[in-house]
Automatic annotation (TrEMBL), chain A:
Keywords, sorted A to Z: Cyclin
Statement: the UniProt record of this protein carries the keyword Disulfide bond: no
Annotated region (Disordered), positions in chain: 297-335
Family: Belongs to the cyclin family.
Comp. bias (Basic and acidic residues): 304-315
GO MF term list: cyclin-dependent protein serine/threonine kinase regulator activity
Organism domain of life: Eukaryota
Ranges where the Cyclin-like domain occurs: 84-166
InterPro entries: Cyclin-like_dom (IPR013763), Cyclin-like_sf (IPR036915), Cyclin/Ssn8 (IPR043198), Cyclin_C_2 (IPR031658), Cyclin_N (IPR006671)
Name used for this protein in its record: Cyclin mcs2
From TrEMBL, chain B:
Organism: Trametes pubescens
The protein, known as: [RNA-polymerase]-subunit kinase
Listed InterPro entries: CDK, CDK7, Dev_and_cell_death_domain, Kinase-like_dom_sf, Prot_kinase_dom, Ser/Thr_kinase_AS
Enzyme Commission designation: 2.7.11.23
Active-site residues (renumbered): D131
């Protein structure tokens, strides 16, 4: 996880020369090339499969041979299905677009760091959405949230909250294309000779394309304003071009128009919900290849918990010992303790919970 | 554990330095940089991560500016959320209250410039702070002022979306919020800065109301009851109540030693009509900041004498204190006797000994 902002160059002096967007965590931490995205997902999937295979094997030898694990593409398909479901849920709750878009981004970011074989996207979706209501300043109580979702209790949502927040690197702020599109909509109303019917038809269509773009990787590759203009351009290439020319009156061919084609292609290609039958098959196989260490009650889960507890005990014991020695030395904050603590990799955050 | 290499080093730190009651603890990391760790307990709230923690993390992750406190990292340990913040020695409230310190007009100008710079950056990023007051303006060892405590901050609402008016500590709360205004802007923070500006000159809070109602009275007594011309439409605000007619006390009567540029800027921060109140950006371009005396270099600003290090380790988690000065990073209240002694030394080294105390005038 790369979240050490300490290593980043100081932004203070550069803040006036760069756009605000370039100082955002979205720009700094969540921008990739299509190739990088592919590689990341592939590596993540490989590591997950080998870890889970080991978990199966240590449970009972040879048990993993019959299991058919999910591929990176299949994982992605499943995530996409649940990203689409966020919008259904938001319609049900009448959450604003900001909540929906933020939850979708959280979900997609989460699965750049985690595998569906560890954490099922249905649960992650519920948590991502709940977290998004809070980070976008539209909080609702957990009780009423869970009450409106069938077969869901508050703990289902809360159990994963910390994990999700961590996986996001605590980068809660997200910039969205629908905001940029709103700006374009306000701008185009100043274009002379464009009828308001034509404009609002184009805007409505573009809003639909922005929603479709949420199902794609566009937000990891392009800026929100590029995506917004691409969506507007799908709806009406003439108006999009008129807008760009009004924004850059001095250049005969505004550079922003050059980047739109690959975005449009991406949205039109990947912007529809996945085929339900295909996903059902993936989900069925997921039930068999879930990481046993994450399923309460399984042998592997119990083993993992015991191991955890043993380690915690060990740590506590070491710590108590260190403190005892220090007390005997008569100096609770002495160098002796500090050295021992450092040597024992002592985590001083655990003592006062 | 999602802790980066940076924090790993912090958690195995070799030197734990005791800090004040609300800054949890500070540690020296391997790089030698002192940091403060603010611990927020998770799991004690029925709705999960609480809003003030979320706001603080959300905004501080995005804001990197020399006059905004730096969030170096976030990590978790068990069920705690730990914010690694830059370590800051003191805050403006402690500086103001330290009677042994003498403020020159150039010092006040320097603090105001840094406050406006930090605030302009927040506003440029579409963030309202909503709790500016002297003890949320922290002071680094090198004298740089940093805006801290984003627990009440939020993004600008879209036009037509309501926001709560129950924000900003009363003495620094603008009249529109006291009248229950649910649609407001960056002007609310500017009012707070105006109050802080006045407090720096007076060395005592400028508008200390005892209740929300008394706050309005206090404001009107100082600045005069607004007329419809001063502030069109204010009588239509949701919680409007007439609180009596008061005449404005001329600034000059109270701030006897201040320059006219200075009072002009102060007046623009405390304009009743929020739409006409000065913006942070315009404030930075105000003649006050270009006139002599130039702002004091941050490293030369007066500050309380160093406290002794041998206080016991104290720690409180970040969630408890909503009403107090708010979670921020600050040092212990300095020991009075020690402070006097040290600061009189410091006084000697400062070139001018004229005392700018307006409280007796």
């Amino acid at each position: 996880m790369t979240m050490a902002s300490a290593s980043e160059p100081p932004q203070a002096s550069s803040s006036t020369q760069h756009s605000l967007y370039e100082g955002s965590t979205q720009y700094l931490h969540w921008r990739f090339s299509p190739e990088q995205l592919g590689r990341m997902r592939h590596t993540l999937n490989e590591d997950a499969v080998s870890a889970i295979r080991n978990a199966f094997e240590s449970d009972s030898l040879g048990s993993s041979t019959s299991v058919s694990f999910l591929s990176a593409d299949e994982e992605h398909l499943l995530v996409k299905l649940y990203v689409g479901k966020i919008s259904q849920l938001c319609g049900h709750f009448r959450f604003p677009e900001e909540v929906e878009a933020t939850a979708a981004s959280y979900m997609k970011r989460f699965y750049l760091k985690n595998t569906v074989m560890d954490w099922h996207p249905k649960n992650v979706m519920l948590t991502a959405l709940f977290l998004a209501t809070k980070t976008t300043n539209h909080p609702i109580s957990l009780e009423s949230y869970a009450a409106h979702i069938p077969r869901t209790v508050p703990s289902d949502v809360l159990d994963l909250e910390f994990l999700v927040a961590q996986s996001l690197g605590f980068d809660f702020a997200v910039w969205h294309p629908h905001r940029a599109l709103w700006g374009i909509w306000l701008d185009v109303q100043n274009i002379p000779d464009a009828s308001i019917e034509e404009l609002s038809r184009a805007y409505e269509a573009a809003v639909g394309h922005v929603r479709a773009a949420r199902l794609t990787d566009a937000e990891f590759i392009y800026t929100p304003s590029q995506i917004a203009l691409a969506c507007f351009s799908i709806a009406s290439p003439t108006l999009a071009s008129a807008w760009a020319h009004a924004k850059f009156p001095s250049s005969p061919r505004p550079p922003v128009l050059e980047v739109l084609d690959p975005i449009k292609t991406l949205i039109l290609r990947d912007g529809s919900p996945p085929d339900v039958e295909a996903v059902r098959e993936v989900d069925r196989r997921l039930r068999l290849c879930k990481n046993p260490e994450k399923i309460p009650g399984s042998n592997a889960y119990i083993k993992k918990q015991q191991e955890k507890e043993r380690k915690a005990d060990e740590k506590r014991r070491r710590k108590a010992e260190a403190v005892r020695i220090a007390m005997e030395d008569g100096d609770p904050f002495g160098n002796e303790l500090a050295k021992k603590a450092a040597a024992a990799d002592l985590d001083d955050d655990d003592d006062d919970d | 554990m999602v802790c980066s290499a940076f924090v790993r080093r912090a958690s195995t730190a070799i030197n734990i330095i005791p800090t004040g009651p609300r800054t949890r603890r500070s540690v020296k990391i391997a790089t030698g940089r002192k940091v403060a760790i603010k611990k927020i307990k998770v799991g004690q709230f029925k709705d999960g991560l609480d809003m003030s923690a979320i706001r603080e993390v959300k905004f501080l992750r995005e804001l990197k500016h020399q006059n905004v406190i730096e969030l170096l990292d976030v990590f978790s340990s068990k069920k705690n959320l730990n914010l690694v913040l830059e370590f800051l020695d003191t805050d403006l409230e402690l500086v103001i209250k330290d009677r042994s310190l003498v403020f020159l007009p150039a010092d006040i100008k320097s603090w105001m410039a840094m406050t406006f710079r930090g605030l302009e950056f927040c506003h440029r990023n579409f963030i309202l702070h909503r709790d500016l007051k002297p003890n949320n303006l922290l002071i680094a060892a090198n004298g740089q002022l940093k805006i801290a405590d984003f627990g009440l901050a939020r993004d600008f609402a879209d036009p037509g979306y309501k926001m709560t008016c129950q924000v900003i500590t009363r003495w620094y709360r603008p009249p529109e919020l006291l009248f229950g205004c649910r649609y407001y802007s960056t002007a609310v923070d500017i009012w707070s800065v105006g109050c802080i500006f006045a407090e720096l000159m007076l060395r005592t809070p400028y508008l200390p109301g005892e209740t929300d109602m008394d706050q309005l009275k206090t404001i009107f007594r100082a600045l005069g009851t607004p007329t419809e011309d001063d502030w069109p439409g204010h009588t239509k605000l949701p919680d409007y109540v007439p609180v009596g007619q008061f005449a404005k006390t001329p600034f000059r009567d109270l701030f006897t030693a201040a320059s006219s540029d200075c009072l002009n800027l102060l007046g623009k921060c405390l304009i009743y009509d929020p739409r006409r109140r000065i913006s942070a950006k315009d404030a930075l371009n105000h003649p006050y900041f270009f006139a002599l005396p130039y702002p004091t270099h941050p490293s030369k600003l007066p500050k309380p004498a160093k406290k002794e290090d041998a206080v016991p380790l104290e720690e409180v988690d970040g969630n408890v204190d909503q009403n107090g000065s708010g979670p921020g990073v600050k040092a212990n209240q300095p020991n009075n006797k020690l402070k006097r002694k040290h600061s009189s030394d410091e006084l000697g080294s400062r070139p001018v000994a004229r005392r700018l105390d307006f409280t007796k005038s």
